[in-house]
Amino acid sequence: MVKRIQAVRGRNKWLLFAVVFLSGLVAALSGIYFLFAPSGGYQGGRNPMYGVTILFSRHTWEDLHAWGGVLMIVVAVVHFAIHWRWVKVMSKRTVKALFSREAKLAKGPRLNVAINLVIAVSFLLTAVSGIYLLFAPSGGFQGGRNASWDPMFLFSRTTWDLIHTWAGVVFIGAAVVHFWIHWRWIKNTTTRLFLALLPQPGLVEAPAEARI
């Protein structure tokens, strides 16, 4: 019974991770697209990549980036809520290890904590700036008749855009390192999950009469 509960928890954790990974991948790839093919271009507006179609139209890339990011934020919040107790415990241990002379973190856990911290901060900046840009897009309101409209919440739209871009770049880099650190767990859990879906040799299904 305990093993079954552990298996269900492991499967749910893997499914949550898979949704985060896929939605993050969509948001990251579309973000890289906009990084190298920005609207309006660079060099005084001369952008040789502008108008070039890469797999999808620019409008489709915008939708993928927006909704991939929204899905990732929602799942990340769920992930954070589910693991809140673990987050509190590890936060206390980390603070104690960083500021206590008696307790010290080993090199491996220290790297993991540092990467997790970078991921948390960069993800928060990317998510907040992304939500701002989602609800305050360029082109303005009033049917687009006010292209210069900027609500100026804390920063200008240009500043929010820069925060979103470079926080996203940092997040992608840290996420790749995080993925590399946990590759063994990802590989083993994925293998076990898919093997469990296959018919098990030696198990004979009971006759229909016996199952009634």
Morphology: globular
Structural class: mainly alpha
Percent strand equals: under 5%
Mean pLDDT: 75
Main sheet characteristics: none
Distance between the termini: 24 Å
Q: Which blocks of ≥5 consecutive residues have pLDDT under 50?
A: none
Q: Helix share of residues?
A: over 70%
Radius of gyration: 23 Å
The SSE order reads: HHHHHHH
**Count the helices. How many?**
7
Number of strands: 0
Structural features, described:
- The chain has 212 residues and is mostly helical.
- It has a domain at 83-184.
- 70% of the residues lie in helices and 0% in strands.
- It has helices at 2-36, 58-82, 84-99, 107-135, 157-181, 183-197, 208-211.
- The radius of gyration is 23 Å and the shape is globular.
- The mean pLDDT is 75.
Question: TL;DR of this structure?
Answer:
This protein is mainly α and 212 residues long.
Give the helix/strand layout:
Layout: H1 2-36, H2 58-82, H3 84-99, H4 107-135, H5 157-181, H6 183-197, H7 208-211
